[in-house]
Amino acid sequence: MAVSNQDEEDLLLDSLTYQRDDLADRITNLEDLRKNIPLDNSRVSTVSDTRISASLGKLDTLPLELVHEVILALDLQSLTNLRAVSSTARALVNSNPAYRNVLTHAPDAIRAYITTSLASSFNIAQLLDTLCTQLCALCNDFGAFLFLPNCIRCCWACLTQHPDLLPISAGHARVIFGLTKAAAGKVPVMQTIPGLYKMRLKSCHMIRTEPLVSKLTARRIGSAIHGSREKMEAHVAKIRAKQDAAYEKKIAIYHEELAERFEKWERERPSFEEVRAAPMIKKPAAPPFSGDVDQKDDDVRRLLGVIPFPTLDRRTGRRQVGVSCKGCTNTLPIELIPNEFYPQGIGSGHAQYDGRKRELARMFTDEGYLKHYAECGRAQSLWEFKSKGPSSPL
Q1: How large is the average pLDDT for residues 347-371?
Q2: Which of 26, 64, 183, 284 is most buried, by CB atoms within 10 Å?
């Protein structure tokens, strides 16, 4: 079903879409970020409107074009330090088109990188490139979130389900990717942001920061060290097989010792004091991180390194945060589509709805939604109902 004109497109978007504040509320609290990292309290000055107050040393001797190239190459932490030198330096950095675009349209990304100690791992050019993309790096849906450890865009479904978007500890990365201590030191460490995070079935109040690393980065470094991903996986599997075999032997001895002790007590009937005084038989430790399980959308680690992230059209300068389709969620009157039930939100707690998590969390740009609408029978039925039915808000 095609939409005929701009006015109808605007009305359709207004009636059939909504922003996903419910998802944004589950991750990093942006208000706390803005309070802790003010970024000049929203002042954005340029070279032309700021009085020269200090020399920039050797930078003053370079042509402006080269200075801007230097700004693009500096990591975000160095760029932030440069801006703090003087009002001249701040104005110079602010005059850089890439920095100005990010500061104007996605300042929370800069704040998040500073707060998580990842600012030294990425530069403003990388952040702008990601800002000007639309698709999730792991699928073809619109990605409304920034996965900080890799500076990539992701959608909610991949964020909560894809195995590569689970941040892990550096020790875990060393084990599963066969990294030496020196190699593990090359993986950027994200210091998580304390706050309240809401998973599918429960909430978690993170009081302290927790150092985590990206699986994607650790795997890339591990593959480079071992020559290829296949060689890395073979190396890790060989080591793990040895660890598992050694653990099986230890656990067998442990059970034998327990059985012998119980048989002895059965024969001798020791007193309570004798039993209490007997040395404890210690159970052997399992191989490192064997109990580390990815709990998908019930794993708080997945929410610790992500923020909402708009998209910017380089040509038009238009900023979009993404919207969801009311027809794909719970707003469509049940009586219009018999024999269907719509759970209230992502992860309703019913296993039969797990397959709908991607659909329930899917987001679009305005243009993407109009294409989706042409194929979405539920949205079309809802539009028809809205057009013919009562004027109550959807």
Answers
A1: 72
A2: 26
Q: Is 278 helix (H, G, I), strand (E, B) or coil?
A: coil
Distance, CA of 127 to CA of 148 (rounded, Å) = 10
Residues pairing with 123 in the sheet: 75
**What phi-psi label fits residue 349: left (phi over 0), alpha (psi between -120 and 50 degrees) or beta?**
left
Q: Which residues pair with 18 in a beta bridge?
A: 324
Looking at residue 166, the DSSP 8-state letter turns out to be: -
Task: Give the β-pairing of 324-325 and 195-198.
Answer: unpaired
313 vs 200: which has the higher pLDDT: 313
**Dihedral sign from CA coordinates of 29, 35, 39, 41:** positive
* pLDDT-wise least confident of 35-44, 58-67, 74-83, 378-387: 35-44
Number of neighbouring beta carbons within 10 Å of residue 295: 13
Angstrom distance (rounded) from CA 214 to CA 192: 12
| This prediction's pTM | 0.84
Asked if 109 and 63 touch (Cβ cutoff 8 Å), the reply is no
User: Quick check: 344 pLDDT over 50?
Assistant: no
Give the tens place of pLDDT for each residue, 109-135. 999 999 999 999 999 999 999 999 999
Q: Look up residue 119 and give its two tokens.
A: 């600012």
